[in-house]
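Per your request, structure below.
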């Protein structure tokens, strides 16, 4: 499905980004795995290399232009082309809307929206210059549709990603760049445990037990990162040409719109 394609995955040092990178490699892509946590992406790359696929770990901060440019250069130097980009890096800091400080608000928008936009823009410029076209997948969240309690800044930042995905899809179709998003929920990652830790700090209880309840209602378990990754890998492939500007829920049926 992604044979001979070169895909960059941001925030691939753990959690969903790691699963997405593994899923892309599974179908034949060479993957560039970037994260502010370099040890994490070295581990991700090692896991992929053990399966006989190609992976390059890169120190990447999505809010720094030079760092994003360096990632693109490393991808081209090492693998010779750039076909796809997955904007997975993201943060959440739980707080009630009344307690959310402006620095917390700004941090969400800086990483989840501005950093994501910067990556989209620089990746698209490279795809346009190379006249290859390509595909971009943004990791939004069902929070961007639902609007959960105690994460107002996160909800709003993810809603922005959904809208930005539509806008970029329309604007870059002429360059043969396909832009879609996925909206996960209840995925087994350190971020989800962080949500349980917020509630356990307030109401007591073991976060490792509480996190078990933050699962899709129609399922008897969490979603694993590689399962989201396989949907992302499909959206990066040529077979997804007819799916454009969409934000597809990958949350086990929790969000019916
Ligand atoms: N886990 C879920 O249930 C869930 C649900 C919906 C959406 N998401 C989204 O999926 C994405 C991945 O989430 P996760 O659960 O794996 O989170 P996570 O916190 O476990 O992992 C996030 C990764 O992003 C990296 N990162 C953070 N800021 C960065 C930056 N500025 N530059 C580069 N890397 C950076 C972190 O170092 C980390 O490795 C996020 O965008 C998140 O909002 C997660």
């Amino acid at each position: 499905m992604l044979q001979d394609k070169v895909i960059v995955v941001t925030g691939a040092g753990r959690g969903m980004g790691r699963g997405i990178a593994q899923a892309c490699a599974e179908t034949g892509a060479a993957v560039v795995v970037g994260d502010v946590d370099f040890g994490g992406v070295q581990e991700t790359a090692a896991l992929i290399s053990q399966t006989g696929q190609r992976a390059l770990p890169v120190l990447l901060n999505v809010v720094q232009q030079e760092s994003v440019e360096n990632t693109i250069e490393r991808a081209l130097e090492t693998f010779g082309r750039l076909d796809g980009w997955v904007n997975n890096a993201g943060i959440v800091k739980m707080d009630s809307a009344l307690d959310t400080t402006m620095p917390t608000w700004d941090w969400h928008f800086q990483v989840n929206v501005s950093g994501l936009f910067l990556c989209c823009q620089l990746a698209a410029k490279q795809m346009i210059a190379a006249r290859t076209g390509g595909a971009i997948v943004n990791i939004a969240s069902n929070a961007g549709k639902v609007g959960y309690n105690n994460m107002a800044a996160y909800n709003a930042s993810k809603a922005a990603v959904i809208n930005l995905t539509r806008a970029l899809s329309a604007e870059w179709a002429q360059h043969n760049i396909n832009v879609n998003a996925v909206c996960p929920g209840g995925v087994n990652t350190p971020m989800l445990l962080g949500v349980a830790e917020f509630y356990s700090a307030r109401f007591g209880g073991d976060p490792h037990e509480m996190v078990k309840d933050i699962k899709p209602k129609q399922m008897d378990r969490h979603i694993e990162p590689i399962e989201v990754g396989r949907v992302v890998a499909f959206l990066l492939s040529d077979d997804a040409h007819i799916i454009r500007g969409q934000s597809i829920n990958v949350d086990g049926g929790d969000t019916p719109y």
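Residues 10-11, 13-17, 35-37, 40, 60-63, 88-91, 111, 115, 139, 141, 184-187, 189-192 surround nicotinamide-adenine-dinucleotide (CB under 6 Å).

Regards,
D.
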